[in-house]
Design goal:
2 domains; Aspartate Aminotransferase, domain 1; five-stranded mixed beta sheet; alpha/beta; seven-stranded mixed beta sheet; about 375 residues; Aspartate Aminotransferase, domain 2
């Protein structure tokens, strides 16, 4: 199905909704039935019928159809946050005594789930260097049920060989899942490389307007149906119909936003990677990136996120660099219209908190939809303080 049809027409049965161009928001918690036969029929398949919005809602269903089609998946569920989607996907594939292999440098709440929460229920884990297929295979144990990937990772931009990982997992009879938030389905479709479950923090590119928190899980009908009746319905981490409508709105412009952010980012990266005040730069589609060839094979673009190590021996100078910037906002996340910066020195010297392992001269930068030359001039004048 053509991308334009997915984003602008799929699931939108306009004749059912007064021929409205935009689908209505069905802001109802409950749905009525005219007779007992209809009621019984609905309860025989709660995933298909609207009974109670905690399960199925017409507006949310439109969003699910679009997201599944974008990822070339059979089905999809949406959750109240990206971390919720990660938790539901992982929990759906483990049991007491199970073992998870997860790549290093993954999202912090993925790390917390595996190290702090699931061990209480007897679920073990091993973190591996995802750049090495050998390390991944060596980490698999007889009780391993899941291989969890994040490619690229959102800070150091590490990449995993998706086809290689899928082959290893199938050889050992385990499920593969990936956090695909960095690339969006516009630039990377892991299911085409053999991955079983694809997860997104839809808060980022999919919504794209920094006004909704949402998580996405795409997979086969079998996996999604099982997840619906267990983790989804039981734990109730749903998205509201209003938020679903906002994400549908955001999807209309997803290809345009991804293209603009990607092109602008390449221009900013080209400026920074040769700058004397930049020690090194992490960006998958830069020829100097160690995994550049692999990135080209499985990604058609990289979006707007990258990180740099500033060339300075003073944390005070990194802080001065940040405070000199005028056009970048200090914030976590990414994927909206606004350009962001996250200097890791901000995580140092927080009362009651341990300093992070990542060095204080590491800075993550997201390039949004502003004029890239305008952003480069801002970076240029701020780098002068180093």
């Amino acid at each position: 199905m053509h991308e334009s049809k997915i984003l602008n027409h799929l699931g939108e049965n306009r004749e059912e909704y007064f021929n409205a161009v935009s689908p209505p928001i069905i802001q109802s918690s409950n749905f009525v039935f005219h007779n007992l036969d209809d009621f019984r029929k609905a309860f025989s398949d709660e995933k298909k019928h609207s009974i109670y919005t905690r399960g199925n809602n017409p507006t949310v269903k439109i969003l699910r159809q679009k997201l599944a089609a974008l990822e070339k998946a059979e089905d999809c569920l949406v959750f109240g946050s990206g971390s919720g989607a990660i938790a539901m996907a992982i929990m759906s594939q483990v049991h007491q005594g199970a073992h998870v292999v997860c790549v290093q440098n993954s999202y912090s709440w993925t790390f917390n789930l595996l190290t702090e929460y699931l061990p209480k229920f007897g679920v073990e884990h091993t973190f591996v260097d995802g750049k090495s297929l050998e390390a991944i295979e060596n980490a698999i144990q007889p009780n391993t049920t899941l291989l969890f990937l994040e490619s690229p990772t959102s800070i150091l931009l590490d990449i995993q060989d998706l086809k290689g990982c899928a082959a290893i997992a199938k050889k050992h009879g385990i499920v593969t899942a990936i956090d695909n938030s960095y690339s969006s389905p516009i630039f990377q479709r892991p299911i085409e490389h053999g991955i079983d479950i694809v997860i997104h923090s839809g808060t980022k590119y999919l919504n794209g307007h920094s006004d909704v928190v949402v998580g996405v899980v795409c997979s086969s009908k079998e996996i999604i149906t099982k997840m619906f009746y267990h983790e989804f319905m039981t734990l109730g981490g749903i998205i509201s119909p209003t938020d679903a409508a906002l994400v549908i709105r955001g999807l209309r412009t997803l290809p345009l936003r991804m293209k603009q952010s990607d092109e602008s980012c390449k221009k900013v990266v080209k400026y920074l990677e040769n700058h004397p005040k930049v020690q090194s730069l992490n960006y998958p589609l830069s020829p100097s990136f160690p995994q550049y060839d692999l990135a080209q094979q499985q990604m058609s673009g990289a979006g707007g996120l990258f990180s740099v190590y500033l060339n300075t021996d003073s944390i005070e100078k990194v802080e001065a660099f940040f405070h000199k910037l005028n056009h970048f906002l200090l914030a976590v996340s990414w994927g909206g219209h606004e350009s962001l910066i996250l200097p890791f020195c901000a995580f140092y010297n927080i009362p009651g908190k341990k300093d992070p392992e990542k060095p204080w001269n590491l800075v993550r930068i997201y390039i949004g939809l502003e004029d890239p030359d305008w952003l480069i001039k801002d970076l240029e004048q701020a780098l002068e303080v180093l």
